[in-house]
Amino acid sequence: MAAGTKRSRTDAAGGVSLSPHKVAKLALEDERVSAPKRGVNTVESAGKFCTHEVAWPETASSDDSSQSLLPPTAKAGPAAKEYAFKLDPFQQTAINCLETGHSVLVAAHTSAGKTVVAEYAFAMALRDKQRVIYTSPLKALSNQKYRELYEEFQDVGLMTGDVTINPNASCLVMTTEILRSMLYKGSEIVREVALVVYDEIHYLRDKERGVVWEESIILMPKSARFAFLSATIPNAREFAEWIAKTHGSPCHVVYTDYRPTPLQHYVYPAGSDGLYMVVDEKGTFRDDNFQKAVAALTESSAAAAQDSKGKGSKKGATKDTGKDKESDIYKIVRTIMERNYDPVIIFSFSKKECEALALQMSELDLNDEDEKKLVDGVFWNAVDCLSEDDRRLPQISALLPMLKRGIGIHHSGLLPILKEVIEILFQEGLLKALFATETFSTGLNMPAKTVVFTSPRKFDGGGFRWVSSGEYIQMSGRAGRRGLDDKGVVILQLDTRMEPALAKEMVQGAPDTLHSEFHLGYNMLLNMLRVDGADPETIMRASYRQFQTERAVPALVRSLAAAQAQYDSIVIEAEEQVAQYAGLLQQLERTRADLRAVVNSPKYCLPFLQPGRLVKLLNPPAEDAAAELAEQESDIWGTIINFERMGKTQDSSEEGTAAKPARYVVDVLVNCADRPAGGPRRAVQMLAADARGSPLVVPVHLDRLDGLSSVRIYIPKDLRLPEARIQTLKTIGEVQRRFSGALPLLDPEEDMSVRDSDYSSAQRRLEKLEDALQHHPLASQPDRQARLQALARKQVCGEVVRLAAREVQAAQSLILKDELKARRRVLRRLGYTDSDGVVTVKGRVAAEIQSADELVLTELIFNGVFKELTAEQVVALVSCFVWMEKGQGGAKVRDDMLGPFGALHEAARRVGKVAVDSKMQLDVEDYVTSFRPDLMDAVMMWSRGAKFGDVLRLTEVFEGSLVRAVRRLEEVLRQLIAACQVIGETDLMQLFQDAIDKIKRDIIFAASLYL
């Protein structure tokens, strides 16, 4: 149990009644509460289950924490909202928690009905004349929720940065960034808030924006209560304990694995013609079916390879004529339609692939004539607000025929108005197949009967990776419409790139743990320093990341104690003497390595690497010291087959460069250990010739040669035959027997003509060390080897103890402490704070900028760069701060922007150098080049009144990506106006306002269909 929380238990005898009115009744006619177990209630109703527990703060009295899981008192009076249907146990339990004035975390599968809790929170606020805030991670989701909530409650406002509607309403829908900004500015609205609904709280683990959730939760007034809505998370209790500790009030966890519509999971092996059910509606994994699917994949891929080979071998072969072979995705979608499993969402993780897959459906027509007319009407009613030129955009004209056939596309590259049209059509059942990226699974309440995964591989900013089991659960949860389908269907397309074990883990896996991605930012620090009596360390200590770190301390302490006990248990007789002897052995090995480095240099050894020469070899380094000692006991001999030069040498003729020595690899036939099937891919372990193994020709670097013999043997011309290798290995063994294991070696000085001062000095050291070892007291001890191995084990244990102690120390200290010091140094050296840490005027300006690099923009303001620009040039320059998508790069900067762009890079380089000097981990050149001019021409042309279609011709980006960039550009310009207001720069304020006026028009800023 974590510090700061107390578990409570429930006496379930006779049921539980928590309130005199209907909504607050937990014990219904057919509802039962199980006997308490470890502070957890299991609530069941009509076969539906949910678990419920509560985390109490340390300040809770013993009387409070010993009460039932649901406190026994609640406000008397009418229910805030009545429902026409019977609530599920998790919905009822969560509502009871809200009625008692406590916080609650509701963790349930996608489409389980978590929205009921949010609706009830709004109804409570209106009933009790309080203010409630609903916050979501996406502007599109906020717009949709505003529409839904406004239709029911009326007294609802919206604040997303782009749009502000009725900001004084009792119920406000906003993005989390807006909420955080209001908290830092001490807005009157947040002081009045009684309840905050955080939808999709698992977004807290987002690397870039998750920290915003933590900041807003920490900064919320202590009087506020929370309703957190999340997909299933295994550590929900831990999160509730953090909330209880941070806000000093109980936080309940209502958790359910129950799905209103059960799912069946299928695997479709690429190239095959069948589906294999691998998880049934009861959640049972069918391993036999899974193995059949893997076998079918192997068979189809082998057949495809053979077919390809056969075609390629025919001279003058031409492409098949007639109808092309149907693609896998086409066969899957056709099968779904034949079995009436539509509507279907096909998830792909690439915008281009989404469109390519949708185009493969050209022969499918899934809508009847009436549905086509409806699609046509909805589409043109929606785009009617656009200008005639915009309605002729390729993306708009190309999409309508596809939509009329019942096929849609949904990804971030689409124009926002088209995405909303597609969402509306899908909700109305006018789209039967929707090809979508991952964003469609976040928050939008649009379930389907079937979900298909094409290739569950995604780019996460740093590289490509397979989708985690938690992400798979989140997206597959879209399958199965409550009240419409008796089951949902999930199909995973399995190809040869995905390991079967990975697919199995994905389908069977558990939800992703909710972890903190808390990190520091300059805007956060400046805003914290501006608040009276606040300190950045305060928010760091209160963060979920710090809580999780401290929570790990007891386990780390136990690990340290166990490691220390193991270390103390290894007792070595005369340990100091043994350690001294081991030290001499290490020096001896280093000296021998120095000798080998000289002798094995290409200058001396290449003339002697003839085929058939016997060579003494060193094994690759062992994984631990004890194994290293064991591996050194016997000599390993092989025979040289060939040698070759590795890589290219650097041209020494280039000025300022030194020639790099060429590296060589020797192919040696040697006896090798048989690697166990499925074993780790470790460097080949070589064995003595008489040990059990397999003769293999392996490449060996020169530095692994331990001696060249003067003996050469005959080797067969063709060593590809196992018999030839075995016979050669027997010959090596016979030579060793004739020489009684002591094969004659080439003398480096006499035979190889080594003349080198380094060799001579190393030889003298070697002789001294060998003499010291020979006369050492341990040399005559019979148990010497055992004591050395015991010492090696103890040294390994000692290293484990040191690492464990370091982990305990790190967990007990403040997270990111060194980074905080470094960032404070940066702010002080650049003049954003004074020597006492007080925020200067420059710092107050930077604190207003949240959506772009605050330091570089502030430097440009104070350097007077913007004053010399026109509004169009301002738009072009600021575009370098908002474009983050992966692109071709190398865009040419127009002549009239060379000066401002150079000033931008100069300011970025100065900030980067100060950051590096302040001990920040930063690559200055990468930081400078991150401000890219890719959109300069496009946005400048747009600001001069060009048509959207003409602007698109200047860039290769998706229409939706360009819209998003310009909207973010407008957001940054608004923040620059607020920043200039701090210093009274009215001329700059007007310049930035003119820039906004020039870009805020037409299709890019078309109003949302939800508003």
Automatic annotation (TrEMBL):
Q: What residue stretches are annotated with the Plant heme peroxidase family profile domain? A: 617-896
- Region annotation Disordered: residue ranges? 1-21
Looking at the record, the residues that make up the Helicase C-terminal domain are 328-526
One GO biological process term is: response to oxidative stress
Q: Where would you find this protein in the cell?
A: Nucleus
Q: Which CDD domains match?
A: DEXHc_Mtr4-like (cd18024), SF2_C_Ski2 (cd18795)
Q: Which GO terms describe its cellular component?
A: nucleus
Q: Print the keywords alphabetically.
A: ATP-binding, Helicase, Hydrolase, Nucleotide-binding, Nucleus
Q: Which family does it belong to?
A: Belongs to the DExH box helicase family. SKI2 subfamily.
Q: What is this protein called?
A: Uncharacterized protein
Q: Which organism is it from?
A: [Myrmecia] bisecta
